[in-house]
Structure formats: structure tokens, C-alpha cells
Amino acid sequence: MGNLLKGISTFHGAVFPNDSALYQKLAKEGQRPQALMISCADSRVMPETITQSGPGELFVCRNAGNIVPPFSTANGGVSSAIEYAVVALGVRDIIVCGHSDCGAMKGLCHPEILTPMPNVAAWLKHSHAAYSIVCEAYPADLSGPDRVRAVAMENIIVQLDHLRTHPSVAAKLATNEIVLHGWFFDIETGEVQVYDGAVSAFIKVKEDQPLPAAVTGRGRPRITHQTANRAGGVMS
Ligand SMILES: [Zn+2]
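^ thats the input. predicted complex w/ zinc ion below
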């Protein structure tokens, strides 16, 4: 803990003075982050570092496995963070960020290591679909780190699907006011691959290229007014 104490002192004495005007502005005007990032709690995955974001720029929610429980499950910190970011802060982008060598994904692949961690095992049920996809749809000889990597990438897609079950997100998607992103951070190379929903693949992106989206509201089939009335008639 000595290093952390030294860090606090260094931040306050040497770093903060250079950014004090920014912090004072944020303290006075409040936060207006440009995006919500839901990432793994892994200490090697640092959202502000990999995006080079400063104070006030990124609203971050971290947990084991970058999981988004479906809305219908019990209320919790992730659901509250999503609702607050979308409704109160008005973020227009949500990023689910997974990563290589993820301990949570290893737990999915090797459930025997979860035996002494019943809470982690229960939490990871929200990722079982990703494991099933890899078991059924990927080559049977996929093993080791490649298998964990595949589960981690599929888990990002599963969690994006869960995001759409949250009413605040679904409503903003319907009005094209929010975009969902899936990112995969490779710890060893420092590279971020981005999921492109148009081609259903993780791709490498460059700064001068448009950022692909995983999910947008565009192209969503709409129920016509006439159909809605007809549906209402059936209900009555
Ligand atoms: Zn992880």
C-alpha cells in the first residue's frame, strides 16, 4: 500500500496542479462524459489509459467479465450505472470492453476453478451463452488461450445483446440517439479491436477511419401506426 500512498501524494502535489483548472471547471459544472464504458475489473485493463481519456470524459463501470445482466434479472450496480449514464448524463455511446487472458472467461472454460468462488460462478451465468456458442460453433480442437479469447469475444456480443434489454438503452436505440460498441483489448500488444456489426467481425481500426458500430438504431423495423392500432384492438 506504500506505493498507493506515494501515488496519492504525487498526484496531489505534482499532477493535480497542472490540471487544477479542469478539475475546478468539472466541480463547478458537473460531468458530461462522452461515453459509458463497461469493462472488466482486471487491473491490466485501464479504460482511461487505453482511450487516453482525461477527467470527466469517460463514465466507467467495471466488473468481473465486463458483464451486463439482462434487465429482467435482479437490480444491481451495472443496471443503475447504465440507467444513470443514459438518462441523467445523456451519453450517446456505450462500449462493452473485453480483453485477452480474462480470468472470468477462463472460469467459464474451466468451471472447476470456480468451486471456491460461488459468487463468481453465479455471476458468470450471464456469460454462459458465450461459452455455449464457442462449444457449438467453433472448431472442436480450439483450446487453451485461443479458446479463452474466442469466449471473451463472444461474451462481448452476448453482453451487447443484454444491453438492448435495458429500457433506457432500447428507447434511445429506437430514436437513433445511442450507439453500442464492442471492443476487445489485447493486453500483450496494447491493440484494441472493434466489433463491426455490419460484417459481424472484430476488426482493427485506424485513427483516420470511421469507428464501426456494433449496434445502431438505424434499420430497425418499425411498427406502423396502423399496425400498432390493430395490435391495440386485439388487446382490447
Ligand atoms: Zn477480465
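The pocket of zinc ion is lined by residues 40, 42, 65, 99, 102-104 (CB under 6 Å).
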